[in-house]
Amino acid sequence: MLVAPHIRILATGGTIAGIAGSAIAHEYRAGEIGIEDYLEKVGGLGLAAELSGTQIANIDSADMGPSIWNSLYLAATEALADDACDGVIITHGTDTLEETAFLLDLTLPSNKPVVVVGAMRPADAVGYDGLRNFANAVGVASNADAAGRGVLVVMGDRVFAARDVRKVRTRGTEAFRGFPRESIGLVTPSSLEWFGSAWRSGEAPAFAWHDDLPEVAIIYGFAGMDADCIMRQVRDTTRGVVLAGVGEGNMASAARSALARLASDGLAVVRASRADEGVVDREPEDMANGFIASRALNPQKARILLQLMLANGITDPARMQSEFDRR
Ligand code: SIN
Predict the structure, then answer these.
(1) Which of 249, 254, 241, 240 is CA-nearest to residue 221?
(2) Single pTM value for the model
(3) Residues 157-172: tens digit of each pLDDT
(4) Fold of domain 215-326
(5) Which of 16, 56, 61, 300 is the pocket-test mutation for ligand 1 (most atoms within 8 Å of CB)?
(6) Is 133's C-beta closer than 6 angstroms to any atom of ligand 1?
(7) Is pLDDT at 278 greater than 70 in this prediction?
(8) Tens digits of residue pLDDT in 211-247
């Protein structure tokens, strides 16, 4: 007899657990349904998996941050080490889902599937997308071939890698895309197709976990930016800055000089792009300025990588650049 895979659900809230109080209302509250009620709701779908749930938080993901990340990391680590657990699903609000997925991608082992899933419509809305997304996530988390691909994100019928996924729309159910790789798989409640094979061979995570992530600011670039715009956003406790620069991580000359001064004072300075599909390559002057190029990571993901490096004592710009180059 075929044994159903055991999937551990770590619930954090978001619209997937949201309630509007009306099937057609625009306003709703994220993070309202508890995991036990949610498991009852999905119980009728006939999913070929045994599900158990833990409520890590029940929040709007705008409030996601270090303390909940810490609880989530500990619960995911425990589940992945449990022989009785075949895969982990994290339910999450879509607004900061990409940051949580990337943080866990860099810190969890890749020995079993870990899937982050959300929804764009609350659970009592007409056309609630959460049930299908959840059913798809169960299919991915139950699939042994999902291991070795790092943390995955399922939205709609697509599977994304944590490194690539980004929220690109605030309306509608097709709100996510992957860059520079588009989706790496297609999933429905009854099928799963991978594009290419797993790429992570080792089980070891890229970085050790630290619950005290250092302060890193994201500074948004714009026409007319001056040195004050930079300095106002840097405090004594700031360890690094990610510039969401114009074009390919560019900035006004005055802002560049201010950032170069900060880098020479020991702050880590990363040039990222505010463009939707920005890729920032290293420039000849980066070495002299002490700057690091974010490559294909958007500013919010560049910030996560920078925080992890600083937390792990990696401060040499050349070493930091090589970590960005590898992503
Ligand atoms: C949230 O991120 O918690 C609210 C928005 C969403 O889940 O779509």
Answers:
(1) 249
(2) 0.97
(3) 999 999 999 999 999 9
(4) Rossmann fold (3.40.50)
(5) 61
(6) no
(7) yes
(8) 999 999 999 999 999 999 999 999 999 999 999 999 9
Say yes or no: do domains 6-194 and 215-326 share a fold: yes
Query: Which ranges of 43-96 would DSSP assign to H, the alpha helix?
Result: 66-81
User: Quick check: CB of 245 below 6 Å from ligand 1?
Assistant: no
CATH architecture of 6-194: 3-Layer(aba) Sandwich (3.40)
d(CA 205, CA 120): 30
Residue 182: strand, helix, or coil: coil
Cβ(93) – ligand 1 distance below 6 Å = yes
- Give the domain ranges of the chain: 6-194, 215-326
**Which alpha helices (H) appear in 88-167, and where do they start and end?**
97-107, 130-141
The interaxial angle of helices 299-311 and 317-326, nearest 10 deg, is 130
Q: Give, in degrees to the nearest 5, the angle at Cα 165 between 143 and 294.
A: 130
